[in-house]
């Protein structure tokens, strides 16, 4: 395997020093083969590792791997990657283009090091009944029926199933059946479940979230930027046509996280999806 000399880890979206979601970042990945990238992602064991490559059509090309497979988009690894480049002095504040499997998307870094990533426009998929979903989460169908919001697939790059619960106590009581969830996601061609409640710890936060993606060897994730971007679009359609959302995640994991979502719209239709956040200090990885 090609020796990697520039590999780092850092937490994205953290509310505290121990909060956020850890991503691996490999800077000099141009010579790596697909199987080598997957092997590195497995070795690091983070929910996602980002591999930065040159692009002929954008400023950067980035590929994302979980320990199980490649994915089209990853929110927290994107925030971590551009924060790393900024902190290392490799990129000044500015606007950059990136080539992803999810498409050609824009990234902006401000003078404070906050990273703003564009996501794909939302696609709304099939809806599911409470009876079909509740057993996967260790809940009763009537628990899911307490919300008027649909159980639905939404994607801004990755397809997740969104499930609204009436309060944070019920959200915290969710006991996911990972084998059933894995099978359901495989059958429905989706990535995971993003379960949320409007009951939050702060007045500025829109919702508290939990994310389960065992099909990709991510049983539960502390911060899921791609899913929160889609959640903002879902709430814009079914709850309130807001343009700004703040989501908390990772509380039950002891990794409190904050994901900010801003939407632009034209005549009520979403025209741009932006997810933003900060990342912590990078730690260089040896022996990769």
From TrEMBL:
Listed transmembrane segments? none
Which molecular function term from Gene Ontology is one that the record holds?
Answer: isomerase activity
Q: Mind naming one GO cellular-component term on file for this protein?
A: cytoplasm
List the catalytic residues. Answer: 48
UniProt keyword annotations, A-Z: Isomerase
Signal peptide range equals: none
Q: Which Pfam families match?
A: PhzC-PhzF
> Belongs to which family?
Belongs to the PhzF family.
Classification via NCBIfam families: PhzF_family
Protein name per UniProt? Phenazine biosynthesis protein PhzF family
Task: Write down the species.
Answer: SAR324 cluster bacterium
Lineage of the native species?
Answer: Bacteria, Deltaproteobacteria, SAR324 cluster
């Amino acid at each position: 395997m090609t020796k990697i000399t520039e590999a780092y880890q850092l937490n994205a979206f953290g509310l505290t020093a121990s909060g956020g979601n850890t991503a691996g970042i490999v800077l000099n990945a141009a010579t790596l083969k697909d199987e080598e990238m997957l092997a590195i992602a497995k070795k690091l064991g983070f929910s996602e590792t980002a591999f930065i490559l040159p692009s002929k059509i954008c400023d950067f090309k980035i590929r994302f791997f979980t320990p199980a497979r490649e994915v089209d988009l990853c929110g927290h690894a994107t925030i971590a990657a551009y924060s790393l480049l900024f902190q290392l002095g490799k990129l000044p504040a500015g606007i950059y283009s990136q080539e992803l499997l999810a498409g050609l998307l824009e990234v902006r870094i401000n003078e404070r090091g906050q990273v703003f990533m564009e996501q794909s426009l939302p696609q709304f998929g099939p809806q599911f009944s409470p009876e079909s979903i509740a057993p996967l989460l260790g809940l009763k169908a009537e628990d899911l029926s307490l919300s008027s919001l649909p159980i639905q697939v939404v994607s801004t790059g990755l397809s997740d199933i969104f499930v609204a619960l009436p309060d944070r106590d019920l959200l915290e009581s969710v006991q996911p059946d990972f084998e059933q969830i894995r099978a359901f996601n495989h059958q429905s061609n989706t990535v995971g479940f993003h379960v949320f409640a409007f009951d939050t710890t702060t007045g500025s936060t829109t919702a508290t979230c939990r994310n389960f993606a065992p099909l990709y060897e991510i049983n539960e994730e502390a911060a899921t930027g791609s899913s929160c971007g889609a959640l903002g679009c879902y709430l814009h359609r079914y709850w309130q046509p807001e343009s700004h959302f703040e989501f908390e995640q990772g509380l039950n994991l002891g990794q409190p996280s904050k994901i900010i979502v801003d939407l632009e719209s034209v005549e009520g239709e979403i025209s741009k999806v932006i997810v933003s956040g900060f990342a912590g200090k990078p730690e260089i990885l040896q022996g990769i």
